[in-house]
Amino acid sequence: MKHLSILSILSILILLGCRDSVQNSERPTQSVQAYSIPHFADSTSFENVKKGLPVVDKIFQDYAERNHFPAISYGIVAGGQLIHTNSFGTANLQQKATANSKTLFRIASMSKSFTAMAILKLRDEGKLALTDAVSKYIPEMNGAGALTTDASAITIQNLLTMAAGFPEDNPWGDRQLDATDEELLKQIRKGISFSNVPGVSFEYSNLGFALLGRIVSQVSGTPYQKYITEKIMKPIGMNDSKWEYSEIPAERLALGYLWQDDHWVDVPLLHDGAYGAMGGLICSIEDFSKYVALHLDAWPPRNTPESGPVKRSSIREMHQPWRFNNIFADAKTRSGELCPVAIGYGYGLGWRKDCNGLIRISHSGGLPGFGSEWRIYPDYGIGIVSFSNHTYGAPGLPNAIALDTLISIASLKPRVLSPSEILKQRQQEIVKLLPAWSEESLNIFAENFFMDESLKRRKIATQKIYEEVGSVLSVQEVHPENQLRGSFMIICEKKNLNIYFTLTPETEALIQQLDLEVVSK
After folding, report:
1. What span, in angstroms and rounded, lies between the C-alpha atoms of 61 and 73?
2. pTM for this one?
3. Quick one: residue 336, left, alpha or beta (phi over 0 = left, psi -120 to 50 = alpha)?
4. Pick from 182, 205, 220: which residue ends a domain?
5. CA 66, CA 279: separation in Å to the nearest integer?
6. What is the phi/psi pair of residue 62, to 5°?
7. How many folded domains does the chain comprise?
């Protein structure tokens, strides 16, 4: 038998639908370039967060009282650990059980990111591909119907990004939590009503994540809930979380309530079932904070050994906006300033970026009797989680106000990127080269550079610029945009000179673009 080339092997794997598995499984050791890792300029800044904690406590207490929450519990995660937690109110009105950081609340749709993480873990292990059709693992989908004759097959990625074409199903889906596996499959066999064709639009679907839970069970050979517990939660120390409420001691379980006609109405808990993958997990603040820390620990990319149950790169993959959702052009900051916002959906998580470049990863949860929300600011290394036993009472607003308040009081700044060695080297070479453009020093430029504009024209233009700015007084440090692109300022006698340059992807990264801009003092 002839040896197959690497290209031939990859072609066969692609035909088998295993492309995702090949790309994301453990790769052979590769050479790693010199990398500048983003860091916090002030390593003590998280200590200053503690100054704002009394303000945060007041924010949550007032919010809970104003909105008739029986109980609210919350925690702040910074520097990789739970630095503060507090609770107000009663977890069980009959027993008068006070809520605390160990009280277990049903977290509803915050369960979805655990499902997504399980899918990526199985993908990383080569057991499935995100491009696989759902019907490969749930054959009943072959008879579920379609909206149009030209509709594509629903893929796992469609389910992860809420783009399967299923209708938004929050009120209905919330009541399916205790459905059995057979009831879920029977529902699919009877056919699905679609609101759109797959892959073209975001529409929130609990059914989609129930199907993902089924895929986790089928591929792993382990019930979904057991897989999440054993492969994700226990490895990070989430030892108290449960799926079935009847397994939890009454004094530790938060019961759900509805505020109606000026009094609280009990909302019965549903048992665990096939829809657990969309909203069934029951957690404490102490437990969930470990999961928040796991997500924050995925940033920044770095060369240290992996320590979590899922690769850091896969967690960062969850945080990307794989499905665009909307742009809010009229969004404003809390101070009333216009600040447009773009939002999207990753894998079981929401993504948001505002006009200032602030990125937020989050997800809320709501069920009859419960509301929850967690969010992280990856660039700031800080996150928050809060639970309530108020029907659909997701505490997103106090979470937002609390984090903004802490960032302001502690003067937190996002990570900064130091210039890479190659950027610093090219900067020194540029400074030495200008304004004369000595021909023996032109080997730092890529092949396109003088095709785009001739050396003669560059010399003439540079000479005019240096006559305008005057003598060079000093050169400032290069400010990197990334490892291979940045700018720096040359302080001159009359005016200043801003230099922008970007390097090529070649082994020896050469200058492909160099712009000189005169800046008034």
Report:
1. 10
2. 0.92
3. left
4. 220
5. 27
6. -65, -40
7. 3
